[in-house]
Description:
Blueprint: E1 4-9, E2 15-20, H1 23-31, H2 39-42, H3 47-57, E3 62-67, E4 73-76
Antiparallel strand pairs: 1-2, 1-3, 3-4
Amino acid sequence: MKIYLVIITTAEDQRLHFHTNNDTLIISMHRANTQPLDIQTVKTFTSEELFIIEAYLDGAKSCEIKNNITQKSFMLP
């Protein structure tokens, strides 16, 4: 099962770690910098997934996504 590790560095230099297997969450986070979030998609997220998006959009310094299967990571803008 594919699981993503989401590491968000906040404006206060706190590192938040989350695990998710929701591909839609990762895609929504990537798009969130350039487009509004789709309300129908957001309604499907759990409260923890909404917290992840909020932490990312709340002035995060960086956001790294790691895939446990490929062991590759990438940074969100």
